[in-house]
């Protein structure tokens, strides 16, 4: 240790400043010690390969939190992070040295050895040759050594999460347990001082300690404490691991010895170059080892034969959330936002903190006044006195906020913890920082589209009719295809059209690694996404994977990749004879056809493949539905539903270009081309209203066939399924329901088929499956029973006639069917069954039935709302409509004069 004057000099040895990583108290102490000692060189715990990146720390665009990212050149997913916050002692030392023109060097074990050792240990642990990529993308340090303050349970196993990263200078460790002293030395010191919380002890003895006369005193005390703890660990380690566990203790101790041997060599080299003063900033745990006398030969012997790989390093943005221990970061802290506030507050930290809390709660529309802040400050100070603390800490301020500003509720307190105690700060790095070409292209696109990465999750609504929004959507889809999950699609709250997209965006530091990994596919986002899509298409194992990939290529607008994907799709579809696979692949393929209108993509080849797949499904589905067990029948029912929706979309997609080619500009308002109710529900429109297919329309293999023929063939398939006895009941029931919904099956015929399916000769289990297919699956079957008394009567009569010995077997199936209904539907059905068939009447009959229900449709009520429905659908007023009188006003073409005036004011004319 340096002399009492605080300056390092000849014969005095290096100035060893042991710190707690990400501790604001340690950061202030380091700043004061460096100002007093004025060393000629500063050594900081970190990878030496980062020395060339040191000047960037003083760049005006560098804003912590940031991290050093080291990754293997040949395998970017094998990486490690060294994070730095504004209040990190290492960052403070780095900035002090740069600002004062003092050379600064990182002196921990090189990242080339760190990553190679970790790979070697994983191969030994899993017994692999390292070529399986089992841990690709997991940064080194997913079992990081916790420095003082890194709290963990004694003997806790390292978490193998991809998000875990190394603390500055951390060595990768094998999964295993560690001695309690090494795991959390601060907990041991806190316990010796009578504290049950090491964070509270650290705040009392370091964070709340004022500046003393000797700036080196805290480092001397901490070095002495760590020396005593290391002696304890050495005594325990000499006894050998306990029989019941500590398998990783020896490995961890060996890694520490290797790191510290390298550190000592670098300190000696610095002393030879700068004999008048060397300052070392490292984790307090290593200080006794650096002070210990050791020969150069002994240190070099420990480093002999270390594996090595080629690595690249750069600066990347970091977040407060990733500094949190809850993220899996071994040297993390519980409250990075609070620590940043303590480091940045010039005075009155408690008052300033509670003012921040009040501002946040006001932004969330909570009533918080200045009186609340004053009372919270008083309460925090009182709690500190009662608990024997020198100043209020985070626990006191949190209790005060809960009691005064949150009225005892933990809900707003959770918001305070998330936004302030942890925080959503995202650091920034300058453009001059080294980066792979793909990262530079992504940064350029983000700036052009004004799509800034943010740590706070937010929703982004896109209107794809706007060029900027369309480009944003393409970028996010391309990144997802590359495995860079910056955005995730979400359900839109403003509409369901194909021209709208909703994304949830959140930038995580690990995405920088994903970008580096994706760099192997190309130097631009477009080129990399194209190459990745082509490779995924060739490597796909199932037809559904290829169709899903085709959909993603259309969303991402990858015209160069689409031909390759379509060629693979056509080959796989021709060879795949499994109807289930074809039915599973068809929906995604048909959905892709919808995106051509908005994105201007040519989907002609896709339409031909989709039509061919549909034809093969039509031919193979009836035989494939025969002789299935219960699980197979349920899976096939889902395929039938999916194909039914796909056929409707395929036909509608084919109708659209034909209508555009042959209809006038105002075709949406022309009676001859307006789709009627039957056409809207999927049934074949009248012959006079169907335009001839245009050149761009989708057709079946037969050139003369059109979208109407496609629907008709599918309905014939459903009719076959509905009456074939070898088809399971759940599929027969679903086929009848789809035909009924499509308007192709009269209600009387549906009732007849239900009566046959529920006849006494049908096994109860098969009849229950038919009911599930007809009215189950959350497809509106409950409302069908509510409005059709005959069908409800058939179900009721069958259920009451099920033999007692069979009722127990069919009950689970029936419960699953009816439990999917909305509570209101179940309540209405129960009321109808209680009153019995025929006991209800509509309001027009003046009966005592449920309001709004009648045996027959109420034409008077229907005619009253018809003009409004036509207006909403954009249909013309019905000529010569009877126009029964409405509530007020004269009738004009089925609508009142007042209605016409109101719509004219809105700019809508019919």
Description:
The protein is α/β, with parallel strands linked by helices. The chain has 37 helices and twelve strands. The protein has a four-stranded parallel beta sheet with strand order 1-6-2-5, with helices on both faces. A three-stranded antiparallel beta sheet has the order 4-3-7. Helix 1 runs parallel beside helix 2, helix 25 packs parallel to helix 28 and helix 26 packs parallel to helix 29. The longest helix is centred in the C-terminal third of the chain and has 33 residues. The chain starts with 14 loop residues before the first strand and ends in a 5-residue tail after the last helix. 42% of the residues are buried. The N terminus and C terminus are likely disordered.
Quickly count the helices.
37
Look at the structure and give the mean pLDDT: 75
Assembly form of the protein = single chain
Low-confidence stretches: 1-11, 128-179, 235-250, 658-705, 840-852, 882-910
Query: Biggest sheet: strands side by side, in what order?
Result: 1-6-2-5
Shape: elongated
Region (Disordered): 120-180, 230-253, 660-709, 834-859, 876-910
Biased composition (Gly residues): 838-850
Biased composition (Low complexity): 660-708
Biased composition (Basic and acidic residues): 148-160, 239-253
List the helices and strands and how they pair.
Blueprint: E1 15-19, H1 24-37, E2 41-44, E3 66-72, E4 79-84, H2 89-99, E5 104-106, H3 111-126, H4 180-183, H5 185-192, H6 198-207, H7 217-238, H8 249-273, E6 278-283, H9 287-291, H10 296-303, E7 311-317, H11 320-323, H12 336-344, H13 349-363, H14 370-386, H15 394-405, H16 410-423, H17 437-448, E8 458-463, H18 467-481, E9 487-490, E10 500-505, H19 511-518, H20 525-539, H21 543-556, H22 562-575, H23 579-593, H24 595-599, H25 604-624, H26 630-662, H27 677-680, H28 707-723, H29 729-741, H30 747-757, H31 764-775, H32 781-787, H33 789-801, H34 804-819, H35 823-835, H36 859-873, E11 891-892, E12 895-896, H37 897-905
Parallel strand pairs: 1-6, 2-5, 2-6
Antiparallel strand pairs: 3-4, 3-7, 8-10, 9-10, 11-12
Helix pairs in contact: 1-2, 1-12, 5-6, 8-10, 12-16, 13-14, 13-16, 14-15, 18-20, 18-21, 20-21, 20-22, 21-22, 21-23, 22-25, 23-25, 23-26, 25-28, 26-28, 26-29, 28-29, 29-30, 29-31, 31-34, 32-33, 32-35
Biased composition (Low complexity): 660-708
Pfam families: DUF5682
Biased composition (Gly residues): 838-850
């Amino acid at each position: 240790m340096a002399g009492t004057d605080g300056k390092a000099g000849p014969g005095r040895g290096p100035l060893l400043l042991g710190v707690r990583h990400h501790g604001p108290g340690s950061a202030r102490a380091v700043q004061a010690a460096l100002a007093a000692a004025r060393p000629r060189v500063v050594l900081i715990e970190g990878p030496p390969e980062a020395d060339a990146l040191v000047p960037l720390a003083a760049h005006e665009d560098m804003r912590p939190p940031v991290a050093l990212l080291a990754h293997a050149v040949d395998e970017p997913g094998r990486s490690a992070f060294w994070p730095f916050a504004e209040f990190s002692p290492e960052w403070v030392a780095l900035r002090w040295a740069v600002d004062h023109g003092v050379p600064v060097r990182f002196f921990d074990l090189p990242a080339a050895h760190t990553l190679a050792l970790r790979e070697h240990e994983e191969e030994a642990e899993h017994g692999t040759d390292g070529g399986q990529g089992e841990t690709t993308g997991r940064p080194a340090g997913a079992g990081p050594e916790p420095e003082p303050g890194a709290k963990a349970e004694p003997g806790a196993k390292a978490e193998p999460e991809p998000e875990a990263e190394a603390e500055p200078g951390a060595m990768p460790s094998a999964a295993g347990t560690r001695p309690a002293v090494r795991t959390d030395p601060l907990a041991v010191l806190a316990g010796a001082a009578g504290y049950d919380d090491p964070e509270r002890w650290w705040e009392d003895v370091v964070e709340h300690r004022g500046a003393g006369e000797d700036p080196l005193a805290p480092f001397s005390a901490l070095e002495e404490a760590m020396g005593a703890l290391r002696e304890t660990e050495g005594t325990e380690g000499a006894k050998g691991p306990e029989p019941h566990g500590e398998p990783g203790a020896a490995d961890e101790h060996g890694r520490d010895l290797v790191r510290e041997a390298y550190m000592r060599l670098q300190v000696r080299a610095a002393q030879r170059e700068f004999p008048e003063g060397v300052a070392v900033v490292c984790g307090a745990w290593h200080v006794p080892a650096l002070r210990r006398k050791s020969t150069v030969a002994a240190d070099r012997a420990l480093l002999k034969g270390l594996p090595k790989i080629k690595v690249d390093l750069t600066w990347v943005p970091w977040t407060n959330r990733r500094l949190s221990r809850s993220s899996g970061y071994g040297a993390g802290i519980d409250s990075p936002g609070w620590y940043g506030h303590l480091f940045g507050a010039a005075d009155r930290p408690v008052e300033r903190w509670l003012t921040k809390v009040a501002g946040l709660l006001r932004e969330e529309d909570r009533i918080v006044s200045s009186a609340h802040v004053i009372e919270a400050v008083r309460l925090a100070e009182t709690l500190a006195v009662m608990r024997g603390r020198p100043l209020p800490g985070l626990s006191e301020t949190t209790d005060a906020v809960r009691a005064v500003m949150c009225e005892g509720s933990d809900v707003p307190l959770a918001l305070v913890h998330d936004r302030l105690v942890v925080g959503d700060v995202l650091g920034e790095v300058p453009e001059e920082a080294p980066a792979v070409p793909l990262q530079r292209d992504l940064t350029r696109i983000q700036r052009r589209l004004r799509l800034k990465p943010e740590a706070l999750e937010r929703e982004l609504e896109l209107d794809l009719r706007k060029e900027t929004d369309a480009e944003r959507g393409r970028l996010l889809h391309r990144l997802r295809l590359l495995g860079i999950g910056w955005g995730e699609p979400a359900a839109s709250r403003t509409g369901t059209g194909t021209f709208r997209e909703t994304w949830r965006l959140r930038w995580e530091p690990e995405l920088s690694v994903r970008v580096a990994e994706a760099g192997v596919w190309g130097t631009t986002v477009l080129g990399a996404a194209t190459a990745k899509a082509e490779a995924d298409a060739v490597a796909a194992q199932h037809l559904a994977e290829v169709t899903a990939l085709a959909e993603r290529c259309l969303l991402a607008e990858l015209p160069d990749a689409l031909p390759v994907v379509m060629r693979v799709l056509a080959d796989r579809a021709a060879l795949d004879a499994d109807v289930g696979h074809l039915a599973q692949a068809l929906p995604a393929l048909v959905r892709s056809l919808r995106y051509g209108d908005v994105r201007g993509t040519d989907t002609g080849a896709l339409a031909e493949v989709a039509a061919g797949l549909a034809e093969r499904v039509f031919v193979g589905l009836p035989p494939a539905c025969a002789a299935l067990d219960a699980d197979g029948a349920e899976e096939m029912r889902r395929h039938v539903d999916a194909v039914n929706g796909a056929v409707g979309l395929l036909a509608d997609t084919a109708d659209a270009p034909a209508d555009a080619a042959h209809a006038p500009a105002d075709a949406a308002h022309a009676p001859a081309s307006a789709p009627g109710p039957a056409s809207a529900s999927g049934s074949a429109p009248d012959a006079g209203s169907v335009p001839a297919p245009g050149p761009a329309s989708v057709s079946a293999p037969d050139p003369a066939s059109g979208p109407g023929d496609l629907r008709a063939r599918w309905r014939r398939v459903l009719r076959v399924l509905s009456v074939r006895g070898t088809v399971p009941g759940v599929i027969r029931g679903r086929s009848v329901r789809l035909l009924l919904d499509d308007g192709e099956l009269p209600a009387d015929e549906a009732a007849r088929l239900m009566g046959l399916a529920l006849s006494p000769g049908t096994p109860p289990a098969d009849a229950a499956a038919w009911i599930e297919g007809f009215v189950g699956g959350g497809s509106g079957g409950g409302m069908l029973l509510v409005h059709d008394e005959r069908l409800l009567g058939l179900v009721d009569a069958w259920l009451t006639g099920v033999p007692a010995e069979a009722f127990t077997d069919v009950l689970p199936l029936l419960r699953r069917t009816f439990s999917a209904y909305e509570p209101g539907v179940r309540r209405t059905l129960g009321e109808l069954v209680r009153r019995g068939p025929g006991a209800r009447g509509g309001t027009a009959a003046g009966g005592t039935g449920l309001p709004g229900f009648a045996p027959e449709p109420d034409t008077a009520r229907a005619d009253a709302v018809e003009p409004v429905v036509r207006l909403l659908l954009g249909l013309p007023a019905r000529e010569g409509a009877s126009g029964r009188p409405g509530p007020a006003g004269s009738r004009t073409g089925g609508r009142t004069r007042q209605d016409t005036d109101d719509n004219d004011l809105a700019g809508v004319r019919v």
